[in-house]
Amino acid sequence: MGTVRERPPARSTTRTVRATSRPSADDTRGRILAAALDLFSERSFEGATTREIAVRAGVTQPLLNYHFHGKEELWRAAIDSLFDRLTTVLDTRLTGLRGVDERTVTELVVREFVLFSAANPQLHRIITQECKADGPRIDWLVETHIRPLYDAMADRLRRLSEAGLAPAVPPAHLYYILTGAAATMFVLAPECRRLSGVDPSDPAVAEQHADAVLSLLFGTGNHSGHKEL
Amino acid sequence: MGTVRERPPARSTTRTVRATSRPSADDTRGRILAAALDLFSERSFEGATTREIAVRAGVTQPLLNYHFHGKEELWRAAIDSLFDRLTTVLDTRLTGLRGVDERTVTELVVREFVLFSAANPQLHRIITQECKADGPRIDWLVETHIRPLYDAMADRLRRLSEAGLAPAVPPAHLYYILTGAAATMFVLAPECRRLSGVDPSDPAVAEQHADAVLSLLFGTGNHSGHKEL
DNA sequence: CGGCAGCCTATTCGATTGATCAGTCCTTGC
DNA sequence: GCAAGGACTGATCAATCGAATAGGCTGCCG
């Protein structure tokens, strides 16, 4: 356990296309990571078995220990890939909005966050998972991935609040009201389908939800799509 | 497995006080249920082990199979006890508000729900857990416990919306915005402590959060406790 | 063309899981 | 008092977990 083995090539970032007939290690790693993300978010860290991850990825179980060293490193790698997608989406949105007033930028970022939560409910599911245990994995998760996002969003909310452009609520409360309102419908999608008949996996529903969240928290939202059920 | 055994006395509702020196079976059942609720919410159904539940309850592991028939029935019994507490709290609040205008009643019910979520984060944690798997347990959970609560709250929100006393947002969206905004801070309490320094287990923080939720969703809340961080 | 490194599989290990069974202790009813 | 039975424990079961080991296959490089 304490012994550090040499890790596989791990050409993670620059996914070089390898046009050989031999099975590509990058493709395999990608399939394993996608399967791991699904199963870790569905069954939690302890509940997900490496065998089932391997089956869903179409490989054998010892291969997970070949590419990643143990269940824990596989978990971290899967989380990394998920947060990479999120930060990429948010960063490209932000760089495309240079010069726009801060209120509008915040609304568009929030909308982007709602749509990402709808398309990737695994994010909040895994965070919720690890928050319950309050162990070393939530430490890593917060310090590695969540804190930069929180700091940026809390600063943004505080500036808007002080300028009277957002509700006068302490940033921490506003942050959790915002993320909770944005993500809960998609995290609880199976419940929502059974209770209300609304299917959160429908992109139109996600847009409606983004409108609703923005209209409630910022007073201005596109209500065009709203219909009473 | 398919054989149905005779179940223990199960004097669940009317907890008759047994003033004997013998260890009370009801007390033992209660301790097991409390421990099960904690561990099921912390580690999920598959992740929680019956041995650890037994250790936390101060009993041996075979006793869980004596009082409850298998892990699944123990899980259901633990959920029952949690929802019994919630419906009791909400019902007594509602019966004490007969004759009050509906807007005020709704606000006070929402406040009660926020405070319950703060004191019992296991509720949303378990619902989130089971929603991920989308299996038979979420079926049971929705039909047995959640649907009555949802129907009552959705009806209430729809009436208020149509009267112009609540945001004009479809009830399903409003419901998940409300419950998400109310509960997420407490579900993610360990993350919140690390990120912001705010401790959601502090009752004063729970009151602040109830104020914030009400002021954002209904425009009126007691802002007396709000302070910028 | 021969070795060699990279990618992957079959097999198996010790540990741990939920569940069962036999048996003990103690209270209660008669 | 004494049989009956409820409450509980120790020991153990087969199943399954994550991980380790050894070996096979393929395609490139000298």
Global Rg of chain A: 20 Å
Tell me the greatest interface.
A-B, 69 and 69 residues
Query: What fraction strand of chain A?
Result: under 5%
Order of SSEs of chain A, N→C? HHHHHHHHHH
The profile of the biggest β sheet of chain A is:
none
Helix content of chain A: over 70%
Estimate the mean pLDDT confidence of chain A: 86
Key phrases:
homodimer, 229 residues, mainly alpha, 10 helices, 70% helix, disordered N terminus, DNA-binding
Description:
The structure is a homodimer of 229-residue chains. With 229 residues, chain A is mainly alpha-helical. Chain A is 70% helix and 0% strand. The first copy, chain A, is built from 10 helices and no strands. The longest helix of chain A has 27 residues, at 136-162. The radius of gyration of chain A is 20 Å and the shape is globular. Chains A and B meet through helix 1, helix 6, helix 7, helix 8 and helix 9 of A and helix 1, helix 6, helix 7, helix 8 and helix 9 of B.
Summarize the structure.
The structure is a homodimer of 229-residue chains. With 229 residues, chain A is mainly alpha-helical.
Task: Detail the topology: elements first, then pairings.
2 copies of one chain form a homodimer.
Chain A: H1 25-47, H2 50-57, H3 62-67, H4 70-95, H5 102-119, H6 122-133, H7 136-162, H8 171-187, H9 189-196, H10 203-218
Chain A binds a DNA duplex (30 and 30 nucleotides) through residues 8-9, 20-25, 28, 49-51, 59-67, 70-71.
